[in-house]
Write a structure and sequence with these properties.
Blueprint lengths: L1 H16 L11 H5 L15 E18 L2 E12 L5 E6 L3 E4 L5 E14 L2 E13 L9 E9 L12 E15 L2
Antiparallel strand pairs: 1-2, 1-8, 2-3, 3-4, 4-5, 5-6, 6-7, 7-8
């Protein structure tokens, strides 16, 4: 019961931080399935890996003003399954933590593995640095951030030390070595 409440509260807070009410509506089929056939070659998972999870994220990209420019501080997003149920949280690291089984994966962007999207944070390919637990994120080798919407830092200058959060959405896929 406490875990379910924590997930609900985290989902609600992230929704409010993004400037609106929290939504538990299921993502559209296009958001969950569409990008597979259209993944840019720069962000494709290497051969020898298989897709093991696909979740739709809503949250914020938080930026801080450093030396007069906006720099990414951290993401904060809730990942949902096909039915719109919260299943993971995405935080600084970047790290994804399952709210179902506590497993986690930390990854880092692969150099040059990005696809620029107009008006949105880029699509990325990330390689796993470490995993924790034996649940859904155990054995993950790659993470993709696809079908991005929003999340871009504000244009122009800023006041040193200020922060701003910008709503974003993305489709995250998780792959593991094919056996």
């Amino acid at each position: 019961m406490k875990r379910a409440r924590l997930v609900f509260v985290a989902t609600a807070l992230l929704g409010l931080a993004a400037g609106g009410a929290a939504s538990t509506a299921a993502p559209t089929p296009e958001a969950m399935n569409g990008p597979d056939a259209q993944v840019a070659s720069a962000v494709k998972v290497p051969p020898g890996n298989k897709l093991v999870g696909k979740f739709y994220a809503k949250g914020v990209q938080t930026y801080t003003c450093t030396t007069g420019a906006w720099k990414l501080l951290e993401p904060a997003a809730t990942l949902a399954d096909r039915l719109g149920r919260a299943v993971a949280l995405h935080t600084r690291g970047p790290i994804w933590v399952s709210t179902v089984d506590g497993s986690a994966v930390e990854a880092a962007p692969v150099d040059g593995a990005r696809n620029e999207i107009a008006g949105a944070v880029p699509e990325l390919l990330l390689k796993t640095k470490s995993t924790r637990g034996s649940g859904v994120f155990a054995g993950i080798s790659y993470v993709q951030r696809l079908a991005t919407k929003g999340g871009v830092a504000p244009a122009g200058g800023c006041t040193e030390g200020t922060q701003t959060s910008v709503h974003y959405e993305a489709l995250y896929t998780f792959s593991a070595p094919a056996r």
